[in-house]
Amino acid sequence: MNKYLKELIDVSLLDREIDLMEPKIKQIKKGLNSKLYQQEVKEQEILSLEEQKESHRLQLLKCNETIATLGARLEDISKKMGEVKTEKELKALNIEEELAREQITYQNSEITRIEGLLNSVDEKIEQTKASIQSIQADIVEIEKEVASELEEIKKEQEVISKKKSLLVDKMDQKIVVFYEKIRKWAKNTSVVPVYKQACGGCFIKINDRVYTEVLKGDDITTCPHCGRILYIQED
Ligand SMILES: [Zn+2]
Fold it and tell me: Can you tell which superkingdom this protein's organism belongs to (predicted)?
């Protein structure tokens, strides 16, 4: 096989390896990102629970204020009862008193209900905090793993990049430029094997003349349809 073609195949394989590193890195970080997202969701939950709590607290305040007002009214009623002159007045005061007491009873039952809600919100907050803690513990573990995996990939990346630059340095620079031009659009399918007399990039059948050229391997041959560099895969 032509020396230049051999070098082109090698450099394209190295480029492919380098490009495969990115998805690998993304894959490694995926687990960590999903945990970070879970943590964020839980933190949002706590914020909304705190808001609920605040609104329950305001409701409680209102109940207590209402009870205080009703208490004052009861006092007022009992004072008036001492000065009552007619049966009719007494009856009216009795009705008013009964109404105030009913309202106090209702407010007290509201307080009990709201305190129950507050308790359950508190419980939810505690549970959510506990799950945040466990997520954070997972994050610490995953971060350790990710760091060591990324370190390995970085080393791998350096080795391959070194190999590539050594190879590119000794290559004919015109051929390198030619290859880079194709790579701009064909990416990792810039140098492709011919399979069943068809281009391995565009999959269109190549004519006998071009196929013979590729089989000889004396020259750098490109696909007449798409322009990718062609070769015959040995073995
Ligand atoms: Zn082609």
Answer: Bacteria
